[in-house]
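Side project, low priority. Logging it here so it doesn't get lost.
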Amino acid sequence: MANFYIDQPALDVCKTLVDSYPIAKVRLIIHKVGLNWSQMYSTNSTRKQKFIEAYSHVKRFSRVIEISQSEFLRTDLKEFQLSKNEVVSFCSLMVLSNGDKVHFPMMNFHPENDFSLIEIIDAITFLYPGMQGVLLNSGRFSHYYGNFLLSQSEWEA
């Protein structure tokens, strides 16, 4: 069982998750940080006009990096040589040592939606009853990372 602790850095949480499973490849995404959809369209009228955009993911990645489990466990964010306003994101998609593609369940909760911690925990418990996970606060969002893997078909459902 993975050991997590309060105020554990996000990278250490991800390393703990990856180290708990027979993962061969980890995918990281380097991208610029900008306003999210809710921040760009803050009123109900503009959100209705731009509704479809909330469900389309424009690929604004600077780089996609696939590294081995051992490389990931040794990695330090400094080695990515990030430009101004760039961040490294942990991708849910993993490749197991047997070649199967699986996903860590992940969700972002945006503070402008004004959800309480209890409401966020209730939503996670509803979706994944009895399953363990970690809730992080990056300062920008709250992030949920499940401590279990989903097959490709489970992840798409």
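Brief comment: Helices lie at 10-19, 37-40, 44-49, 69-74, 117-127, 152-156.
Revisit when time allows.
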